[in-house]
Amino acid sequence: MTSIDVDFCKKLLKAVGTGLNEKCKREERSSSVTDLFNQFELSNDWATNQIKVAMAEKYPNIHWSDSEFETQNQQKVEFQGEYWICDAIDGAVQFLQGIYSYTISLCLVRDGQPALSFVYDPSHDELFHAVAGEGAFLNGKRISVATKEKLEEAIVSTTPPSFPTKEIESTNLTLKGFGQIIPRAFAVRMLGSVSLQLAYTACGRLDGYYEFGDEFYNWIAGALLVQEAGGVVSDREGNSFRWGASGIIASNPVLHQKMKEELHAIYF
């Protein structure tokens, strides 16, 4: 088991975040979807490479996953031992449009389980991290999930599919989920970055988060934050959150059960 220097990881993510903020400020806004994809690829490749190279030098025996966009590879453990999962720009559309709601997420998987995770919001200099069995923290201070127990008092969030015309099932479930949750919750919001919304759930700014789909690597870092902050994380049907999970529900134990029941109703 490799001993990880948490401060080293924090400094690295902050340095990359500073670079992304500068890119966000000076990027010309795209005039087409093609331009948008090209700009994202350049910025994402730069940020990913900065983190990947630094981690390879510091921890040469820890593998690196290149499956950020390969959801099929995300359905099972990729490597024996230890490996990093990184989403260098979570909230790409926001980043490219100059909307300051994007993050860098990084997770260490050890023997098939998330052991350490970071979610950094460079726009607000907020760094969330969690260590399995040791708790979750925001800028070094311990955090915990909200304590609301009534859905009608809860502020929850979600994220629609990135490619609605390709992800038909997830799109339909998202629309049905709106119909089920919006009339019953106090408020439903969509904030962009998935890992940021899970981090906000971990620290109590949001009362819960749910999403349909199969992008496990979008969730894994934030899921550990919620779990270590005293919350419950499951797949969309309430089963244990694990490799191959279809969707995610995250909240405190009481509200999680109520969200699960409401979302379960859309399947019948």
Short structural description:
The chain is built from 7 helices and 12 strands. By secondary structure, it is of the alpha+beta class.
Number of strands: 12
Number of helices: 7
Strand order of the largest sheet: 1-2-3-4-5-6-7
Structural class: alpha+beta
| Distance from first to last alpha carbon | 45 Å
The biggest beta sheet reads: 7 strands, mixed
Determine the CATH superfamily of the largest domain.
Fructose-1,6-Bisphosphatase, subunit A, domain 1
Approximate helicity band: 25-40%
Provide the domain count.
2
- Average predicted local confidence, pLDDT: 93
Query: From N to C, what is the helix and strand string?
Result: HHEEHEEEEEEHEHEHEEH
Strand content: 15-25%
CATH architecture of the largest domain: 2-Layer Sandwich
Globally, the shape reads globular
Q: Using only CA atoms, what is the Rg?
A: 18 Å
Residue ranges: pLDDT <50 for 5 or more in a row? none
CATH fold description of the largest domain: Fructose-1,6-Bisphosphatase, Chain A, domain 1
Write down the CATH class of the largest domain: Alpha Beta
